[in-house]
Design a protein that fits this description.
Elements (H helix, E strand, L loop, with lengths): L8 E2 L15 E4 L4 E6 L6 E5 L2 E5 L12 E2 L3 E3 L16 E3 L3 E7 L4 E6 L6 E5 L6 E4 L18 E8 L2 E8 L8 E7 L17 E3 L6 E11 L2 E10 L4 E10 L9 E9 L2 E3 L1 E8 L2 H9 L12 E10 L4 E10 H17 L10 E3 L10 E2 L22 E4 L5 E5 L3 E6 L9 H6 L19 H10 L10 E2 L5
Parallel strand pairs: 1-26, 20-25, 27-30
Antiparallel strand pairs: 2-29, 3-4, 4-5, 5-6, 7-8, 9-10, 10-11, 11-12, 13-14, 14-15, 15-16, 17-18, 18-19, 19-20, 20-21, 22-23, 23-24, 27-28, 28-29
Bound molecules: 2-acetamido-2-deoxy-beta-D-glucopyranose (4 copies).
């Protein structure tokens, strides 16, 4: 078996209302719509990126003493104009909101990298301890400083890491209508060798959209493992009308991008593929999950080996309903497959070789049905429902001790104690409680979580899939 899969049937697809207990939860309300959340695991400080605002909060979501909210917009701008905006040159400029596209903590350098949708997606650097203190901002550098997508609807993902040359930021973004065509790039976070901060660290360190007018990308996830960095995105092709999910891999130190390689990721069952990926997360599975997977599969996977869990969906035209599945892919097998394909590619270059996508085929492992439970309709219980009809945003983060979960709706952040789930002892109790936060039953008869990976499952179960707001979890696992 080339790949293995563990499909979870999702009982109720349309979780329009997710009821979450709030007995002991802290919360914070943003003035505007939130887009990113990050937690500094060394200090517990929480950072939020919202439309026109940035926030720095204590771990229990109180505004940081003596550090005000930061205003990032609105400013006069037009997507077609090159910053800095000169109103005599850019007559179409008008007051435009600044959507936060990237919010990345660099705890090593004690910096925070912020990119917004304004001014062609240029970025700034701020102090980690004081987000009000902007230490780098350059709006007159032109094309080389355009990092994020300037389209509020086009997702951008980023990752900060150390290369031999220094601190770098890998960026993946869809190609918006008035964007520069770049979808993947490596940006340096230092001034050196005549190159500025946020400039490409080498001229070839960039991938442009191959068919900018006939395809769009939706970046979902970026992560690093050993010497590689991986990007996962959906590609929507206009002609022929087709959606595919791609995993792209790049050697981190390869400034020429020769090692860049793309492969389709496919999740399917007997009735065919699920053609839209909503969320991906890479992690080492841990023993509990591994036991339940390997029961039925020959694949030998070590608890420390990374796997990708990806939530996919498709529209079932016959039933006129959305269906979703969780597929898991072993990163080792993905790498193997990429090597095989690359070999073939080199040997038969120019012959137009077609490759089958890397498929996680077939369905359930063993006879147990593992289910993701989404409360629908929401029931009020305990402390009551705290947000009705609110989608949960992608950035879900656990605190350093994995005792609390930070979760966002459109303009509210909550901090929820993870342990409360432990009050449910059986799978039935867990489901009957109608608590999506505790809705996960990983091993039969247990909703108790001892393994960080189990928590992740529950995070997935929190998602409001009707809005594609599926958690993209940002946690470092051991
Ligand atoms: C460009 O940046 C400078 C320095 O931060 C600032 O004073 C100026 O207002 C900016 N110009 C525009 C048009 O954004
Ligand atoms: C944070 O930085 C801002 C702007 O640089 C400054 O005005 C403020 O005093 C600083 N706050 C603290 C607590 O250092
Ligand atoms: C802002 O950060 C810089 C760099 O760390 C520091 O030198 C400066 O004193 C800070 N400014 C304020 C107002 O805190
Ligand atoms: C492709 O994805 C887009 C955006 O999610 C969706 O609107 C469209 O229906 C999908 N097309 C196909 C052929 O599945």
């Amino acid at each position: 078996m080339a790949a293995w899969i563990w499909v979870l049937s999702i009982l109720s697809y349309s979780c329009f209302t997710c009821a979450l207990r709030h007995k002991t939860s802290d919360s914070f309300t943003s003035k505007t719509e939130l887009s990113h959340l990050a937690v500094n695991h060394e200090t517990g400080t929480v950072y939020l990126g919202a439309m026109n605002f940035l926030y720095q909060l204590t771990k229990d979501l109180k505004p940081y003493p003596s550090i005000g909210d930061v205003t990032t917009g609105p400013h006069n701008d037009n997507k077609m104009c090159t910053p800095p905006i000169d109103e005599s040159q850019c007559t179409e400029a008008k007051l435009t909101d600044n959507y936060n596209k990237i919010l990345l903590l660099d705890t090593l350098e004690k910096k925070i990298v912020i990119c917004g949708s304004l001014f062609k997606g240029i970025c700034s650097i701020r102090e980690l301890e004081n987000i009000s203190n902007r230490t780098y901002y350059e709006n007159g550098s032109g094309e080389k400083s355009f990092v994020a997508s300037n389209d509020e609807n086009v997702a951008t993902v980023g990752l900060i890491t150390s290369l031999e040359k220094g601190r770098m930021m890998f960026v993946g973004k869809g190609n918006g209508v008035s964007d520069n065509g770049i979808i993947i790039s490596t940006r340096q976070l230092f001034n050196k060798e005549g190159r500025e901060i946020f400039e490409l660290y080498a001229d070839p360190a960039v991938i442009k959209s191959a068919y900018p007018s006939s395809s769009t990308q939706e970046f979902l996830y970026i992560f690093e493992d050993n010497r590689y960095v991986y990007f996962i995105f959906n590609e929507h092709l206009k002609q022929p009308l087709k959606n595919r999910t791609i995993i792209a891999r790049l050697c981190k130190e390869d400034e020429h991008y020769h090692s860049y390689f793309e492969m389709d990721l496919e999740c399917k069952d007997k009735s065919g593929p699920y053609n839209q990926c909503n969320a991906v997360y890479a992690a080492a599975p841990g023993q509990i999950l591994l036991d339940s997977i390997t029961l039925s599969r020959q694949d030998d996977i070590a608890p420390s080996e990374k796997i990708l869990i990806a939530l996919f969906q498709r529209i079932n035209k016959d039933k006129n309903s959305l269906e979703s599945a969780l597929c898991m892919f072993s990163l080792r097998q993905i790498n193997q497959k990429m090597e095989e394909k690359r070999e073939k590619c080199y040997k038969r270059s120019g012959l137009g070789v077609f490759y089958k996508p890397f498929v996680a085929d077939s369905v359930l492992c063993n006879s147990k049905t593992h289910q993701v439970f989404l409360a629908n309709p929401a029931k009020e219980y305990g402390g009551g429902v705290f947000e009705k009809n609110q989608a949960i945003k992608k950035d879900l983060v656990l605190d350093a001790l994995q005792e609390h979960l930070y979760l966002m709706t459109a303009n509210k952040v909550f901090r929820l104690p993870v342990q409360e789930c432990d009050i449910y002892y059986t799978c039935d109790q867990c489901i009957n409680a109608q608590d999506p936060y505790c809705g996960w039953c990983v091993t039969e008869g247990k909703s108790i979580v001892q393994d960080p990976f189990d928590k992740l499952y529950r995070l997935f179960s929190l998602a409001d899939q009707s809005n594609s707001q599926i958690p993209e979890v940002d946690i470092s696992w051991k």
